[in-house]
């Protein structure tokens, strides 16, 4: 996949997240690996316009992204179950459903005191 296509994909995903969450401000941090798509001017401009601080993992330090690796492992184990998608549109639909209808709203996370991310965020924002 060409570098500009990856940059377009992550920019689209970030814009979609910004619209769906409607949260802006200096308290937000976006952490990623050191992929060129996350360092592109377009991507950095979107983050800056939204007031989001960018964070990148250190070079050659896989532990900086351990939480992402853990999520991807969960995604593969609980959603894909060693399967694959034939069409991109199927992948988008299934990923959205898994993340928004299960992972964020119903799946309990030990690191959040056995609450879903949505429940944790709601309680956090009440304080």
Automatic annotation (TrEMBL):
Single GO biological process annotation from the record: DNA integration
GO MF term set: nucleic acid binding
Database matches in Pfam families: rve_3
Integrase catalytic domain residues: 1-125
The protein's name in its UniProt record: Integrase catalytic domain-containing protein
Organism of this sequence: Roseibacillus persicicus
């Amino acid at each position: 996949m060409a570098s500009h296509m990856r940059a377009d994909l992550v920019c689209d995903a970030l814009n979609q997240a910004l619209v769906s969450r409607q949260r802006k401000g200096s308290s937000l941090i976006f952490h990623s690996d050191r992929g060129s798509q996350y360092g592109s001017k377009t991507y950095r401009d979107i983050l800056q316009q939204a007031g989001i601080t960018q964070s990148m993992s250190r070079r050659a330090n896989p532990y900086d992204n351990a939480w992402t690796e853990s999520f991807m492992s969960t995604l593969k184990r609980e959603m894909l179950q060693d399967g694959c998608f034939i069409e991109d549109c199927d992948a988008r639909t299934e990923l959205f459903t898994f993340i928004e209808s299960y992972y964020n709203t119903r799946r309990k996370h030990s690191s959040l005191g056995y609450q879903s991310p949505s429940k944790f965020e709601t309680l956090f924002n009440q304080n």
